[in-house]
Amino acid sequence: MFTPGIFDVPTGGAENTWPVLLEEACTLFDEMNGREGRLHCGFGPHATYTVPPEGLAAISQAAQARDALLQIHLNETAAECVAVEERYGKSAPALLATLGALDGRVLAAHAVWLDDQDLELLVAHDVAVAHCPGSNGKLGAGIARLSDMLQRGLRVGLGSDGPASNDDLHLWDEMRLAAVLARATAGDPTVVSSATALRLATRGGGEALGLPVGSLEAGRPADVIRLRTDDPRFTPSVTHSELLGHLVWAGAGYLVTDVWVAGQQVVEQGRSTRIDGEQARAEVAQRARRLAAS
């Protein structure tokens, strides 16, 4: 799923304003969405404090006309919530609802600072949430109300955010943090079970995006990972519950040996079948040095 960001870029010139970026996003969707049956495009207005109301309304209308996903950063920090309230006299979710921006397919990224009224708005509009505990923790943004979201029936999947606020983009870290932080804030070790944590990392993500992925079922893409379970991290594994517990609480990326996406193998014995790792690292290092020198 690719949702190009849309906002007015400071000092970015006329070509980096929300109307221009919206037009580019529309062109990208119309030309590329559905390509090869796997490419899914959407629209990414950054947030209610970086896109004006008329822009949010226009972007949401374009997304809804195409039945496309609209992804937006929502109440990530307490400071942005205060700024939106002062500017518009209402919370970001309430503003989006007033503009009709919650009426289509919407994925709210972060969703940390939500009160009960905000949560009920998301429920009423069937807004999904991308829960990003690692990024939120690193930035000191806060802890989202995961348990309350799940109890209300919201569709929640795990997100990592970008490398600037997460570094390793490690899904196992997000899975464990989601469960650990939910239990710690609730003071209840039964909140967010191992099975629920795994679901957030798999089927939950597919449901949040509105895509038929995240589980092995007939009619769905054959997205599969193979892990080594002969590692000490998986010992002992006498019962299915022990295996599940080890997978969630002790699993790690280095244990993944093979990966298939839609039935096509993209990782074999720990090595990408599509990318030359050494060449990629060399190119990234070269570009980093160029940027540092500019």
Short recap of the structure:
This protein has helices at residues 18-32, 53-65, 78-88, 92-98, 116-124, 133-138, 146-151, 171-186, 194-201, 203-209, 240-249, 277-293, and strands at 5-6, 44-45, 69-74, 105-110, 128-131, 156-158, 224-227, 256-261, 264-268, 271-272.
SSE map:
Blueprint: E1 5-6, H1 18-32, E2 44-45, H2 53-65, E3 69-74, H3 78-88, H4 92-98, E4 105-110, H5 116-124, E5 128-131, H6 133-138, H7 146-151, E6 156-158, H8 171-186, H9 194-201, H10 203-209, E7 224-227, H11 240-249, E8 256-261, E9 264-268, E10 271-272, H12 277-293
Parallel strand pairs: 1-2, 3-4, 4-5, 5-6
Antiparallel strand pairs: 7-8, 8-9, 9-10
Q: Provide the residue-averaged pLDDT.
A: 95
Reported by name, the CATH topology of the largest domain is TIM Barrel
Give me the secondary-structure category: alpha/beta
- Assembly state: single chain
Strand line-up of the largest beta sheet: 3-4-5-6
One letter per element, helices H and strands E, the order comes to: EHEHEHHEHEHHEHHHEHEEEH
How would you describe what is shown here?
The protein has 294 residues and is α/β, with parallel strands linked by helices. The chain has two domains: 5-216, TIM Barrel, CATH 3.20.20; 222-294, Urease, subunit C, domain 1 (Roll). The protein is 43% helix and 14% strand. It contains twelve helices and ten strands. The protein has a four-stranded parallel sheet. Strands 7-8-9-10 form a four-stranded antiparallel sheet, with no helix packed on it. Strands 1-2 form a two-stranded parallel sheet. β9 and β10 form a beta hairpin. α1 packs parallel to α2 (53-65) and α8 crosses α9 (194-201). The longest helix has 17 residues, at 277-293. The chain is globular and about 55 Å long. The two termini are 32 Å apart. The model has no long low-confidence stretch (mean pLDDT 95).
